[in-house]
Amino acid sequence: MTEPRSPERPASGRSVLITGGNRGIGRAIAEAFIAQGDRVAVTTRAGGAPDGALELKADVTDRAAIDAAFTAAEEAHGPVEVLVANAGITRDTLLLRMGDDDWDDVLATNLTGTYNVTRRAAKGMLRLKRGRIILISSVVGLLGSPGQVNYAASKAGLVGMARSLARELGPRGITTNVVAPGYVDTDMTAVLTDEQKAGIRDQVPLGRYAHPDEVAGTVTWLASDAAAYVTGAVIPVDGGLGMGH
Ligand code: NDP
Q: Are 59 and 65 in contact (CB under 8 A)?
């Protein structure tokens, strides 16, 4: 006998929330969901959400602000059915030069910030008995990278978080997956020197950086009906840099 599927998503656009949806990868993700007719809310500190998105000012490290942002998204679009936890920062430097603030800020934003938004989103998804949670990690979380002890630790932490959530929330019809991009052409990588960029390109089998919309394509797929049976996965979008890790 064929098992029943999880409840189907509604025919009209879903309520999608993306953290850091004003620029870079998050913006490309927001634009992709908007283009397919979903109702999109983006959180940002600086502003500048794409046309068609509900802009919500919230720092992911501020739980009260995140709670208020979700409430506003719910009022405008209904309960959040798709969460993309994308907001992230780097504070790169070698371990012995690393200030405690460099460690604390990166972990607070990338790991605890993701916990903050995921926990808030899960409340509504549990009521709905349906949902997609997508965490944006990095190839660096799996391969490691000199000068990125803080960042790699925060991004590796997302894998453990997602796999635990996949087990906790899977029985309630909620999938949780990780996307691990390689190097993507955004403000985050614009600070690298030309020499660093060339060195990275040399290690990437596809020989180039990703465009942000190439990450967005994997995210919208994970949120689609086609990926209904995918959970606890770590999907690289890295031009082959991590060779499947
Ligand atoms: P950008 O630096 O271009 O953008 C970062 C985004 O995160 C901005 O929207 C920013 O919002 C938001 N953000 C940062 N801190 C906070 C905070 N405390 N609260 C709320 N929002 C915050 O980065 P990318 O687009 O390149 O990166 C997006 C994600 O992808 C990050 O998690 C990053 O680690 C990951 N990634 C990026 C790679 C790359 O090569 N670019 C590779 C692998 C992973 P605001 O403008 O309002 O500050």
A: yes
Q: Which residues pair with 235 in a beta bridge?
A: 179
Residue of 89, 111, 238 with the most ligand 1 atoms within 8 Å of its CB, for mutation: 89
Q: Is the pTM of this model over 0.95?
A: yes
Nearest-atom number in ligand 1 for the CA of 212 is 25
Q: Which helix (H) or strand (E) element contains residue 117?
A: helix 113-128
Domains belonging to the chain, first-starting first, are 15-233 (3.40.50.720)
Tokens representing residue 121 in the block: 């989103």
The answer to whether the complex's ipTM is over 0.85 is yes
Per residue of the chain (245 residues), what is the pLDDT tens digit?
567 666 555 545 999 999 999 999 999 999 999 999 999 999 999 999 999 999 999 999 999 999 999 999 999 999 999 999 999 999 999 999 999 999 999 999 999 999 999 999 999 999 999 999 999 999 999 999 999 999 999 999 999 999 999 999 999 999 999 999 999 999 999 998 999 899 999 999 999 999 999 999 999 999 999 999 999 999 999 999 999 87
Tokens 């991009």 found at: 181
E-strand stretches of the chain: 15-19, 39-44, 53-57, 82-85, 131-136, 174-181, 234-237
C-alpha 8 – ligand 1 centre gap (Å):
31
Rg of the chain over all Cα atoms, to the nearest angstrom: 17
